[in-house]
Predict the structure.
Amino acid sequence: MWLNAVIWFVLGLVVGSFLNVVIYRIPRKIKLHDPSRSFCPHCGATIAWYDNIPLLSYLILKGRCRNCGDPISPGYPLVELLTALGFMAGGLVFDTLGALFNALVVASLVVLTFIDLETLTIPDTSVIIVLIAGLMWNVLKGEPWYLHLLTGAVVLVLAYLLAFFSKGLGMGDVKLLGAMGVLLGAYGTLFAVLVASIVGSIVALYLLARKRVNMKTKIPFGPFLALGTFVSLYLSERFFALLGGS
Ligand SMILES: [Zn+2]
């Protein structure tokens, strides 16, 4: 079991390193495969393979580019660490097939989180991957997938109405909520939205108190929905079992 966890962790580090490329290049419309090597966003120097080892290189270089000495964003090792931990959790909790779908979902959540933080938009591709992975996972688990599809459709309409009347939600959030409905089902989505709203409110109040934002600042909701989705995947059944007293 621990070997399994270590393998998924290392795989998560490697995939996380690739997700950094995706997160940096998609909003800038740079092709994913061209240039094929990673480069320093400050000086443009190509990064040698030994300076591109997930997590370790950041620590060895003390967070600075070897060529120009410019600080490397701590977002890079954070993406690698979060992906690795997310993959590892799946390896510990689910069977191999489940861990594989978990990895797809985690990778999409990490990408949309960091792109939403930077650009306040959620890429459709990551929402579609959550949707398809969610549907296939539920089909293979023998869950009533048609109920999940129905949930997704209902959540999509409700979120759209909420976005239309309140302006608090963006269209990316609406689509993501629909995909969450398919992945998590009704209870799971409810739990995810609860977690997202509570954590989102706490963070917003903290940022307001520290005067880092004001009432007009747009705070992306995607990262909180992503967190809620992940937590819900693991804990929503236990949460409702506790509520039901069983
Ligand atoms: Zn540099």
Summary: The longest helix spans residues 171-209. The chain has eight helices and no strands. The mean pLDDT is 93. The chain has two domains: 1-84, 94-246.
